[in-house]
Specification:
The complex is a heterodimer of chains A (about 220) and B (about 180). In chain A, about 20% of the residues lie in helices and about 30% in strands. Chain A has about 220 residues and is of the alpha+beta class. In chain A, the strands form 5 sheets. In chain A, strands 8-9-10-14-13-12-11 form a 7-stranded antiparallel sheet, with helices on both faces. In chain A, strands 1-2 form a two-stranded antiparallel ribbon. In chain A, strand 13 and strand 14 form a beta hairpin. Chain A is elongated, with a radius of gyration of 21 Å. Chain A starts with a helix and ends in a 9-residue tail after the last strand. By secondary structure, chain B is mainly alpha-helical. Chain B is about 70% helix and about 0% strand. Chain B is built from 7 helices and no strands. In chain B, helix 1 packs antiparallel against helix 2 and helix 2 packs across helix 3. Chain B starts with a helix and ends with a helix. The chains are: A alpha+beta (about 220), B mainly alpha (about 180). At the A-B interface, helix 1 and helix 2 of A face helix 1, helix 2, helix 4, helix 5 and helix 7 of B.
């Protein structure tokens, strides 16, 4: 007889009963919802790229299908710095608001706010952006861990982030900076070109990103 | 709504394992049934996502589920948070419930569930997890080491120290009860 087991069993109020009926419907529903969210997050980068050049930008609904049109976020009246490519660059300013679970940032673009976050992504949007859906990444600055199913980048080496190589990819009006952290996990920063950021500015923002213990990579 | 093969298999797993998962998670949480339910819900949702990978054997699925429960629990206890109050419909009638003295290595005349939960709560989360995995769930030292992501030596020492500490706490609790009774 395992006597430790006897003692542990005392801690449980109710004895195990073989005839206890379990309805798995709620667990299935929660599992389906999580799977849907992960697929949505994983498709975020693709969705942002796909929206390039489209006459009417779309956001993704819960089922992953386009749901309703949105207007482009209006640019806030903030100070900007001219850059060589003709765009204006929105300054980075220290973030002083409430952080959310998953990821923390030291700086945000001036006039932008954290819209929300999950263990899968931190979403930052322009203040006043009518699209506050945190599953919609179009025109927003997004921080996430690289998908479990994606391979680390090998081309497009860019400015280093905290001493680690960064890799920059530009897809339409979306810049994607991927860099490795000291703990070997890869982080992806997705930024709209409307921010007017060059590689150095993206790396500056990325260097202030902290990935918390509960952050999780998506799948797909 | 149509049910996929994933839904069917996952549902069967939940029906077979959920009750025991919650009971065992209650030991990990030292009796916090709400937290135990939260941990199991989280673990099962993630199991559903990973089902195609882990369904190959029931053993693999249960180990995967426990890995999520353990990591979620350790993350949870590391996070500063407000203490959750526990409401119960009825006051448990187990207070002063005498147990026969034969608890093997536990040299105590009697003990009750509240005392065991209080003693479990005194153990560090990873130590408590090692005791529960080894002595309640009957995982091997090797399996426990893999689940806790530590060496087999650590599992052995944490389990031994955990059991010794439980014994000490329960014996101390018994002494206090004897003193209280002698003053009455």
């Amino acid at each position: 007889m395992n006597t430790v087991k006897d003692v542990l069993e005392l801690a449980l109020d109710r004895p195990a009963t073989a005839e206890q009926i379990v309805d798995p419907a709620r667990d299935v529903a929660r599992g389906r919802a999580l799977l849907r969210r992960r697929r949505l997050v994983a498709s975020g980068g693709v969705a942002a790229a796909a929206a390039v050049g489209a006459l009417v930008p779309v956001i993704l609904g819960a089922g992953g299908a386009p749901s309703h049109p949105i207007t482009q976020p209006s640019q806030p009246a903030v100070s900007t710095t001219p850059v060589k490519n003709g765009h204006s660059s929105i300054k980075l300013v220290a973030f002083t608001g409430d952080q959310v679970p998953g990821y923390q940032v030291a700086e945000v673009p001036e006039g932008w706010v954290i819209q929300g976050g999950t263990p899968f992504a931190l979403v930052i949007g322009a203040k006043g952006d009518p699209d506050t859906n945190v599953d919609s990444f179009t025109g927003k600055l997004v921080v996430m861990l690289q998908s479990r199913d994606a391979s680390p980048p090998t081309s497009g080496q860019s400015d280093p982030v905290n001493g680690h190589p960064g890799f920059l990819d530009v897809q339409g009006d979306t810049q994607i900076l991927t860099f490795q952290r000291a703990d070997s996990r890869w982080v992806v920063i997705q930024a709209p070109t409307s921010l007017g950021w060059d590689a150095a500015k993206l790396a500056q923002f990325a260097s202030g990103v902290t990935v918390l213990g509960n952050a999780q990579p998506s799948r797909g | 709504m149509t049910r996929s093969p994933r839904d069917e298999e996952f549902s069967a797993f939940v029906q077979a394992r959920r009750v025991e998962l919650v009971r065992s998670a209650c030991l990990l949480t030292a009796g916090d049934t709400h937290l135990a339910e939260d941990l199991v819900q989280t673990a099962l949702a993630r199991l559903y996502v990973a089902w195609p990978r882990v369904r190959r054997s029931g053993k693999q699925a249960i180990a995967y589920t426990w890995r999520i429960v353990l990591h979620a629990h350790i993350d949870e206890v590391r996070r500063p948070r407000w203490k959750r109050e526990q409401y119960v419909a009825d006051v448990p009638d187990e207070v002063d419930l005498p147990r026969s003295g034969d608890l093997g290595g536990f040299d105590v005349a009697w003990v009750n569930g509240a005392a065991v939960r209080a003693a479990l709560a005194e153990l560090a989360p990873r130590m408590r997890a090692a005791v529960v995995l080894r002595h309640w769930l009957d995982f091997s030292v090797e399996e426990t080491a893999e689940l806790l992501n530590c060496s087999e030596g650590t599992v052995k020492s944490q389990t031994a120290k955990g059991v010794a500490r439980l014994r000490e706490l329960l014996a101390a609790g018994e002494s206090e009860d004897v003193k209280e009774r002698s003053h009455q």
